[in-house]
Design a protein that fits this description.
Length: 149
Protein backbone atom coordinates (compact mmCIF):
# COMPACT_ATOMS: atom_id res chain seq x y z
CA UNK A 1 0.00 0.00 0.00
CA UNK A 2 1.36 3.42 -0.86
CA UNK A 3 0.20 6.91 -0.06
CA UNK A 4 -1.19 7.25 -3.59
CA UNK A 5 -3.70 4.45 -3.02
CA UNK A 6 -5.01 5.52 0.34
CA UNK A 7 -8.70 5.95 -0.23
CA UNK A 8 -11.35 7.97 1.59
CA UNK A 9 -12.01 5.15 4.06
CA UNK A 10 -8.33 4.97 5.03
CA UNK A 11 -8.28 8.75 5.39
CA UNK A 12 -11.37 8.60 7.58
CA UNK A 13 -9.74 6.03 9.87
CA UNK A 14 -6.55 8.11 10.07
CA UNK A 15 -8.49 11.29 10.80
CA UNK A 16 -10.50 9.72 13.62
CA UNK A 17 -7.43 8.14 15.21
CA UNK A 18 -5.55 11.45 14.90
CA UNK A 19 -8.18 12.99 17.15
CA UNK A 20 -8.49 10.01 19.52
CA UNK A 21 -5.92 7.24 19.21
CA UNK A 22 -7.88 5.13 21.72
CA UNK A 23 -11.08 5.07 19.68
CA UNK A 24 -12.32 1.50 19.28
CA UNK A 25 -12.64 -0.17 15.91
CA UNK A 26 -16.34 -0.56 16.65
CA UNK A 27 -16.82 3.18 17.11
CA UNK A 28 -14.74 3.98 14.02
CA UNK A 29 -16.84 1.50 12.03
CA UNK A 30 -20.08 3.11 13.24
CA UNK A 31 -18.88 6.61 12.35
CA UNK A 32 -17.69 5.53 8.90
CA UNK A 33 -20.66 3.21 8.18
CA UNK A 34 -18.55 0.09 7.61
CA UNK A 35 -18.00 -3.13 9.51
CA UNK A 36 -15.62 -3.46 12.43
CA UNK A 37 -13.76 -6.15 10.47
CA UNK A 38 -13.19 -3.71 7.61
CA UNK A 39 -11.76 -1.13 10.00
CA UNK A 40 -9.52 -3.72 11.65
CA UNK A 41 -8.21 -4.93 8.26
CA UNK A 42 -7.61 -1.39 6.99
CA UNK A 43 -5.93 -0.39 10.25
CA UNK A 44 -3.59 -3.39 10.12
CA UNK A 45 -2.68 -2.57 6.50
CA UNK A 46 -1.97 1.06 7.39
CA UNK A 47 0.28 0.00 10.28
CA UNK A 48 2.06 -2.75 8.31
CA UNK A 49 2.83 -0.30 5.49
CA UNK A 50 4.21 2.37 7.87
CA UNK A 51 1.48 4.81 6.96
CA UNK A 52 0.00 4.92 10.44
CA UNK A 53 1.63 4.69 13.83
CA UNK A 54 -0.53 5.07 16.90
CA UNK A 55 1.41 6.21 19.96
CA UNK A 56 0.69 7.89 23.25
CA UNK A 57 1.52 11.59 23.13
CA UNK A 58 2.70 13.03 26.42
CA UNK A 59 1.80 16.54 27.51
CA UNK A 60 5.35 17.82 28.19
CA UNK A 61 4.15 20.45 30.68
CA UNK A 62 2.75 17.68 32.90
CA UNK A 63 6.31 16.30 33.09
CA UNK A 64 7.79 19.70 33.92
CA UNK A 65 9.12 20.25 30.40
CA UNK A 66 8.05 23.88 30.01
CA UNK A 67 10.82 25.58 28.02
CA UNK A 68 11.13 25.27 24.27
CA UNK A 69 13.43 26.69 21.65
CA UNK A 70 13.82 26.52 17.91
CA UNK A 71 17.48 26.58 16.92
CA UNK A 72 18.48 27.31 13.36
CA UNK A 73 21.91 25.95 12.48
CA UNK A 74 24.20 26.82 9.59
CA UNK A 75 26.49 23.85 8.96
CA UNK A 76 29.29 23.11 6.52
CA UNK A 77 28.05 20.47 4.00
CA UNK A 78 31.03 18.07 4.27
CA UNK A 79 30.31 17.67 8.01
CA UNK A 80 26.53 17.56 7.71
CA UNK A 81 26.08 13.85 8.53
CA UNK A 82 28.45 14.04 11.51
CA UNK A 83 26.74 17.21 12.69
CA UNK A 84 23.32 15.54 12.57
CA UNK A 85 24.61 12.48 14.45
CA UNK A 86 26.07 14.68 17.19
CA UNK A 87 22.86 16.70 17.44
CA UNK A 88 20.88 13.46 17.83
CA UNK A 89 22.96 12.64 20.91
CA UNK A 90 22.13 15.87 22.76
CA UNK A 91 19.50 15.37 25.46
CA UNK A 92 16.62 17.80 25.14
CA UNK A 93 16.69 17.95 21.34
CA UNK A 94 13.50 16.31 20.16
CA UNK A 95 13.32 17.28 16.47
CA UNK A 96 15.92 17.80 13.74
CA UNK A 97 15.15 18.62 10.12
CA UNK A 98 17.10 19.61 7.02
CA UNK A 99 15.88 22.93 5.62
CA UNK A 100 16.56 25.27 2.74
CA UNK A 101 18.01 28.74 3.02
CA UNK A 102 20.69 30.30 5.16
CA UNK A 103 20.31 27.72 7.95
CA UNK A 104 20.51 24.13 6.75
CA UNK A 105 19.23 22.55 9.97
CA UNK A 106 16.37 23.36 12.29
CA UNK A 107 16.33 21.84 15.75
CA UNK A 108 13.61 21.92 18.38
CA UNK A 109 14.62 21.54 22.01
CA UNK A 110 12.29 21.05 24.96
CA UNK A 111 13.61 21.14 28.53
CA UNK A 112 12.60 21.98 32.09
CA UNK A 113 14.64 25.17 32.62
CA UNK A 114 16.11 28.00 30.55
CA UNK A 115 19.58 27.06 31.80
CA UNK A 116 19.25 23.78 29.93
CA UNK A 117 18.69 25.67 26.67
CA UNK A 118 21.94 27.51 27.37
CA UNK A 119 23.73 24.17 27.85
CA UNK A 120 22.27 22.79 24.62
CA UNK A 121 23.40 25.87 22.67
CA UNK A 122 26.89 25.58 24.19
CA UNK A 123 27.00 21.92 23.17
CA UNK A 124 25.92 22.81 19.64
CA UNK A 125 28.65 25.44 19.38
CA UNK A 126 31.26 22.75 20.17
CA UNK A 127 30.25 20.64 17.15
CA UNK A 128 32.76 20.89 14.32
CA UNK A 129 31.30 22.21 11.08
CA UNK A 130 28.71 24.55 12.58
CA UNK A 131 29.13 28.12 11.34
CA UNK A 132 26.42 29.90 13.28
CA UNK A 133 23.15 29.46 15.11
CA UNK A 134 20.00 31.46 15.64
CA UNK A 135 18.12 30.62 18.84
CA UNK A 136 14.41 31.41 19.03
CA UNK A 137 12.75 30.87 22.41
CA UNK A 138 9.19 29.61 22.30
CA UNK A 139 7.06 31.88 24.46
CA UNK A 140 3.68 30.15 24.17
CA UNK A 141 2.04 27.42 22.08
CA UNK A 142 -1.26 28.12 20.37
CA UNK A 143 -1.54 25.01 18.23
CA UNK A 144 0.17 21.63 18.30
CA UNK A 145 -1.69 19.28 16.00
CA UNK A 146 -1.08 15.77 14.77
CA UNK A 147 -3.81 15.95 12.14
CA UNK A 148 -2.43 15.70 8.61
CA UNK A 149 -5.65 14.83 6.84
Amino acid sequence: MSVEIIDQLDKGIIKLLSKDGRMSFTEIAQRLNVTEKTVRTRYNNLVENNILEVVGVVNPISLGVKVGAIIQISAVPPWMEDTIKKLQEIAGIRFITLTSGEYQLLVQANVRHYEEITEIVKSIHHIEGINKTNVILQMDIYKNSFEYI
